[in-house]
Specification:
17 helices, Membrane protein DedA, SNARE-associated domain, VTT_dom, about 425 residues, DedA_domain, globular, membrane, transmembrane helix
Length: about 425
């Protein structure tokens, strides 16, 4: 940034033009900081705000346009020749092109606010051959909205910009992510509107108009729903306590209890229990889970699909939540390990295995015993993990709670899919 400041002082608007142009041709430059600095200079009368906006906007437009034509010229031959090797063959590219042509324009406007995304958004638009007029309208609007926002923030806040810069950038990125998630959900709902409407109608009829049918399945779904809502409530409460740093007493008491329970004579046993979080042990549990699904042979492909979603989604959810907390709470005295990834993956994998056992178990007493065994395993792992890995008790508990939210949410979805298939089979017969 110091080099950019020197160039800005020496060459003025030309530096601003070139910096914006180069960043949108995939050259990483901290342009949010530069634009804000220019806004501050405009506040002090050293630069003109309108000329700064025109220079930055023009440079951004040129960079975005060049990126578009690079993607347009080089992208299509590349995907025709090599796309099938990375599951992006001509047919898939055509489907993406149709989807992007229908919905991607709105996403293009806000993509410039997200670092890493703005560098490739224009290239992707060219690769999938988004009509150039549409690209110009939405990309150029996005460039001016992005540059204008940071210039205006620097100008309005003036000398106080340094004080608020980090927080403003955090909330802008968070707002962009939130908007992207909401937009993606709305697009999925819109694309599957008919199926969703039919499914909700069938579920409503089966639940309220034919309440005596499928009673066991309905009870099972209700119990999972109650657990899901409880875990969500607990998770929100833990996030509030984490942000306000209220876990210190809990951690002190938990460590004192664990140090009293975890006698040195049990050290060897605790080391064996702590191996539960190793991928070797978790892989063995996964093999048993797959075996349980295949042996029962009921909706096995659906259960295997949800097992895959549980694993991949759980890993992404764990890392995404941890990244979000670190990003939003940078500089504050909070744990960097909240929620703990090890305990989260332990609960997700063992939790799904247990749900498969309970789901296919006809003896309710055995199901209750299995639940008690799970609680005992989690308690034993907690003692060993805090003693051996020195994990903070609140971080470990948060890992369990976040993992439980993920597993119970997916199990609820799985049971609803299973319930719908039973209803449809009943209607066909």
């Amino acid at each position: 940034m110091s080099v950019l400041s020197q160039l800005l002082n020496e060459y003025g608007y030309l530096t601003l033009f070139c910096a914006l142009m180069l960043e949108l041709i995939c050259i990483p430059i901290p342009n949010e900081a530069l634009l804000s600095y220019v806004g501050i200079l405009s506040f002090h009368g050293k630069m003109n705000l309108i000329l700064s906006l025109l220079s930055a906007g023009s440079g951004g437009i040129l960079g975005a346009t060049l990126s578009y034509w690079i993607g347009y010229t080089l992208g299509v031959p590349f995907f025709r020749k090599f796309g099938s090797y990375i599951h992006m063959g001509p047919e898939k590219m055509e489907r993406i092109s149709k989807w992007y042509g229908k919905y991607g324009k709105v996403l293009l406007v806000f993509s410039f606010f997200i670092p890493g995304i703005r560098h490739i958004a224009s290239i992707i638009s060219g690769v999938i051959r988004l009509p150039f007029r549409s690209f110009c309208l939405f990309a150029y609007s996005g460039v001016f909205l992005w540059t204008g926002t940071f210039l205006s923030l620097g100008y309005v806040l003036g000398p106080q910009w340094d004080k608020y810069q980090g927080e403003i950038q955090k909330w802008l990125v968070l707002a962009s992510i939130f908007f992207g998630i909401v937009l993606l959900c709305s697009l999925v709902i819109k694309a599957n509107r008919r199926y969703i409407k039919e499914s909700l109608f069938l579920l409503f009829q089966a639940t309220f108009k034919r309440y005596r049918s499928f009673l066991k399945i309905k009870l099972f779904i209700f119990l999972i729903l109650a657990a899901f809502i409880s875990f969500i409530t607990l998770m929100v409460g833990m996030i509030q306590n984490f942000i306000s740093n209220e876990f210190t007493p809990f951690d002190k008491i938990s460590r004192a209890v664990i140090s009293f329970v975890a006698d040195s004579r049990l050290w060897s046993t605790m080391q064996h229990i702590s191996a539960l979080s190793s991928w070797t042990v978790l892989s063995i549990i996964l093999i048993f889970t797959i075996g349980t699904i295949l042996v029962n042979n009921r909706d096995k492909w659906l259960e295997l699909l949800f097992l895959g979603l549980t694993l991949t989604g759980g890993f992404l959810f764990s890392n995404g939540v941890r990244w979000l907390f670190r990003f939003m709470l940078t500089g504050s005295y909070t744990s960097a390990d909240f929620p703990n990834e090890r305990s989260m993956m332990v609960l997700i994998i063992i939790g799904y295995f247990l749900m498969m056992l309970v789901r296919h178990q006809k003896n309710y007493l055995i199901s209750m015993i299995e639940l008690v065994v799970l609680l005992f395993i989690l308690l034993a792992y907690s003692v060993s993990a805090v003693s051996i890995f020195r994990i903070t008790p609140s971080d470990l508990l948060a890992g369990y709670v976040f993992g439980a939210v993920w597993v119970s949410g997916l199990m609820l979805t799985l049971e609803l899919f299973r319930f719908l298939s039973l209803i449809k089979k009943g209607l066909n017969h």
